[in-house]
Amino acid sequence: MSIQRDARARAARQSAIVRLFYDREGDLRTTRVLVVVMVMVAVIVAGTVGVSFAGASAGPETLAIGALIVFLGLKLPFLGLVFWIIMRQGNGDAHNDWSDRERDEIFAYLANQAREAKGRPDEAERLQWLTREAWLIADTVPDEHRAKAVALAVEIGAMRPTPSGTTAPG
């Protein structure tokens, strides 16, 4: 019970922007980000068009002031928001911080794609790519999940056909 209370308290301390763009698990709400970005782009375009018309009818001083207002008031905050989201998403280190749910989804996706690759004309290339991805994940997951990731990489690697056309022994 206290874990849920702690999570709610932490969420309440977060800024309104964090609560708007991230759910309780810390996952980015992509749809909301896209809607906000589209609205901001529309406002920037409308502001630029409005300033252009005002500048054409009132003179170059009005155009210069309007362009400065659009740049400082609309474009810089937009770039700041995009930069903030990118920097918050990237952690820069070699380890990932996926939740258990995300990690299990990735493992299931790789295993499913490996099964679906069987019998396709590009089976060897697909399985080779999936094997590389599985080993990449095995290199970056925390130690407690490494065994499962290595087992998946080995399993997918064993599915790859040998030059004689048979599946590698495993």
Question: What this model shows, in words?
Answer:
The protein is mainly α and 170 residues long. The chain has two domains: 2-89; 100-159, no CATH class. The chain has helices spanning 2-13, 16-21, 30-58, 60-89, 100-117, 123-140, 143-159. The longest helix is centred in the middle third of the chain and has 30 residues, at 60-89. The radius of gyration is 25 Å and the shape is elongated.
Quote the beta fraction. under 5%
Mean pLDDT score: 80
Instruction: Please count the beta strands (DSSP E, at least 2 residues each).
Output: 0
Estimate the helix proportion, in percent: over 70%
End-to-end Cα distance: 46 Å
Question: What is the CA-based Rg, rounded?
Answer: 25 Å
Q: Can I get a quick summary?
A:
With about 170 residues, this protein is mainly alpha-helical. It contains seven helices and no strands. The two termini are about 45 Å apart.
Name some characteristics of this structure.
single chain, 170 residues, mainly alpha, 2 domains, elongated
List the helices and strands and how they pair.
Elements: H1 2-13, H2 16-21, H3 30-58, H4 60-89, H5 100-117, H6 123-140, H7 143-159
